[in-house]
Specification:
Layout: E1 4-8, H1 17-29, E2 35-39, E3 76-79, H2 80-85, E4 99-101, H3 103-110, E5 115-118
Parallel strand pairs: 1-2, 1-5, 2-3, 3-4
């Protein structure tokens, strides 16, 4: 079976990409165990706790990425450089336990996957 990587590259607000990607990820988890989840660029914002979308007049967004371990989705990575570029260093707590990788290490991990779905 092919190994599938889900790449979250967009912020949680302004589009439904994060919700749609999470739905696709959970559905795929029922069919495959070879799944990796990557948060890159603005996608790292998906992992921030205590989001308040009402303050920017956005639809309510429920940060549900924290449920991934319940679906046995534990191969999750975040780009450390993307976090730092957005002002969230190592001390920042995230809604999901993810491996923080430098860009080169992240690219090396991506080479282990056959299929890429980007949201």
């Amino acid at each position: 079976m092919k190994r599938v990587a889900f790449l979250f590259t967009h912020a949680p607000h302004g589009s439904a990409g994060g919700r749609e990607g999470l739905d696709a990820l959970l559905a795929t988890s029922a069919l495959s165990e070879d799944i990796g989840v990557f948060f890159i660029g603005d996608g790292v914002l998906q992992l921030l706790p205590d989001q308040q979308p009402g303050k920017i007049l956005a639809r309510d967004y429920i940060a549900t990425f924290g449920v991934l371990p319940l679906y046995d989705l534990e191969t999750c990575f975040v780009c450390e450089a993307s976090l730092c570029e957005r002002g969230f260093g190592e001390q920042r707590e995230l809604v999901l336990d993810v491996a923080r990788l430098a860009p080169d290490a992240l690219r090396a991990r991506l080479q282990d996957y056959d299929t890429f779905l980007t949201f």
